[in-house]
Every structure is written in structure tokens, then in C-alpha cells.
Design brief:
58% of the residues lie in helices and 9% in strands. The model has no long low-confidence stretch (mean pLDDT 93). This is DUF4935 domain-containing protein.
């Protein structure tokens, strides 16, 4: 992968990741996957907010539910007793339709079509095949499954990686609620268009600096999220005198070539 701008290797020694990191490692067709794989080669410690896992699962499940309904309607009408090459060609046309219908989830379209294709070849009976496809969608989205895939794939790239879960603060406890609300109120002037992003930032900053090794970087493939996070750090420094000088907010495509698809 082409490096667009030089960076210090230490920028990626200790990293906090977000939802796109998780979904890209779960879905091998995800366009962000290659840049995160590259970054892991420089890393030692990876911090994954529990909020990011939960949001990844929710997003993944919502997209797959829509695609699954579309695929079921197609396969129910399809003659699966034909030559595999004919069915394969029809599936390619279905993928084109999916990409037109759900143009913002192209990577997910490809993911579930390939799962469907693998299951179709495994189950000779159409009912068994469609049942297996439905079971896949129903059971795939849980934290244990996502954690296993993300950890195993990451360590296949860099076996020395250490993973740490950044827990969601239990705001029902008064002492925790006090600190959480202090951070939340400080960043209120920053307009997060995406509420899950704000929740993720709060999850990260509640545990700062005690739970992390330094130097520390929050990395994201979402430029808007990085911009909002940088503005939030300024508010935290100004309003509650929280020294965030050892925390960098890095938009990964400032340094690496962005995928075209």
C-alpha cells in the first residue's frame, strides 16, 4: 500500500480503534481492511472500546438483515438444480442489483452473497440452504464471534499484539456518573452528527489517561469523526483542564492511500 505522508512509527505503537476497524476485519471485502492491516504491523497495544464492538454488531446486523431479505426473495424463485456456472452468473447479476439497491453497503452485499454461495454449494436441498443462510444472519452478530474473528485475524498479521477492552462506564454508580458527565458536558459544544461517534468518544475519554499506554493514538478511517474528536479534545483541555497532549487523533488516509471502492 502506498504511503502518502511520512509518520512516526510510534504513532501506531499504542492505538485505540473504532467501528470501521472491527467491521473491516470481520468482512474480508471491506475496503478499509488493507490500511488497518498495514497499521497493525507497527502496533504493540490495541485498545478496542466496548462501544465500538456493540455499534459494529448493530450496524453489521442491520445491513445484513436488509440484504438477507433481498437474497431470500431471489433464491426462492431460483432453480438451484441447474449447472453451477449458470447459477453463478445469476448470482453475479443479483450482486449488481444489490449494489444498485443498497449502494452504501457494497462491501456487505458482497460478503453475504459469498456466504450464500458457499452455503448453496454445501446444502443440496434448497430448504436446508435457505435455513442455513437465515441461521448465519441470526447468529453472526454477537460480541464473542466478532472478538474471536478480530483478534485471530489481527494476530495473524502481528502475533505480538496485545488487546485490551475499553469498558463502557457504568453511569449508574454516582462516582462514575460524575466523571462521565463532566466529560460529556465539556464536549457539548461540539456537534456530533452521528450519536454513536459521540458515545464512542466518551467511552474512550472516560478511561483517559489511566487505562492506556503512551504515546497513544486514536485511529479512524472516518475524517469527520476525527475532526469532531480533535475539537472535543480542545474543549476538554479548555474546560476541565484535562491534559490530552499525549493523545493523537489520526485520520488514517492522511498517511495511506485511500481505496477506490
Amino acid at each position: 500500500m502506498k504511503i502518502l505522508k511520512e509518520f512516526a512509527v510510534s504513532d501506531f505503537k499504542n492505538i485505540i480503534v473504532e467501528t470501521n476497524f472491527i467491521t473491516s476485519f470481520f468482512n474480508k471485502h471491506d475496503s478499509h481492511r488493507i490500511v488497518f492491516e498495514k497499521i497493525l504491523k507497527y502496533s504493540e497495544n490495541v485498545y478496542i472500546p466496548q462501544t465500538a464492538f456493540k455499534e459494529s454488531i448493530k450496524s453489521f446486523k442491520n445491513k445484513l438483515d436488509r440484504i438477507h431479505t433481498f437474497l431470500m426473495s431471489k433464491y426462492l424463485k431460483m432453480d438451484l438444480n441447474r449447472d453451477n456456472s449458470e447459477i453463478y452468473e445469476e448470482e453475479e447479476k443479483i450482486l449488481e442489483e444489490l449494489n444498485l439497491t443498497f449502494d452504501k453497503s457494497i462491501n456487505f452485499n458482497k460478503y453475504l452473497l459469498n456466504v450464500s454461495r458457499d452455503l448453496r454449494l454445501r446444502y443440496l436441498d434448497k430448504t436446508d440452504f435457505l435455513s442455513a443462510l437465515t441461521d448465519h444472519v441470526l447468529h453472526i452478530a454477537n460480541i464473542a464471534v466478532f472478538e474471536k474473528v478480530v483478534y485471530e485475524h489481527s494476530r495473524s498479521i502481528n502475533p505480538e499484539l496485545n488487546f485490551y477492552n475499553v469498558l463502557v462506564p457504568n453511569v449508574n454508580k454516582p462516582t462514575i456518573q460524575k466523571r462521565y458527565n463532566k466529560i460529556k458536558n465539556a464536549i457539548e459544544p461540539v456537534n456530533y452528527n452521528d450519536k454513536p461517534d459521540k458515545k464512542l468518544f466518551l467511552n474512550i475519554m472516560y478511561h483517559y489517561p489511566d487505562e492506556y499506554e503512551f504515546p497513544l493514538s486514536f485511529i479512524s478511517s472516518d475524517s469527520e469523526f476525527i475532526e469532531k474528536s480533535r475539537l472535543s479534545l480542545i474543549e476538554l483541555n479548555n474546560q476541565i483542564d484535562l491534559d490530552t497532549s499525549e493523545l493523537k487523533m489520526i485520520y488514517v488516509y492522511d498517511h495511506f492511500e485511500k481505496p477506490t471502492n
